[in-house]
Hints:
The protein is mostly helical. The protein has helices at about 1-15, 35-55.
Amino acid sequence: MFDQELIARVVAVGGLSIGEIAVPTRYFEEASSVGFVRSVICWLSILRVVARFLLHRLRLRRSPKLTARRPVP
C-alpha cells in the first residue's frame, strides 16, 4: 500500500520517528465496507512493507525504494 511505503521511506531516508495519536472511532456494520478478504490483503501488504523495511534497516537486503537519492544538479 502506498501509505505504508511512504512512511517506511520517510523513516529510512529521513531518520524521522513515528508517533501515534488516538482517534475515537465507532465501528458498526453499515459504516464498514471492507470485507474479510480485502482486510487480509491489506494486512499482508503491510507485513511485506515492514519486512522490506527491516531487511533494509539490518542491511540484509537493500531496497531501492528505501535508499536516499542524490539530488539532480
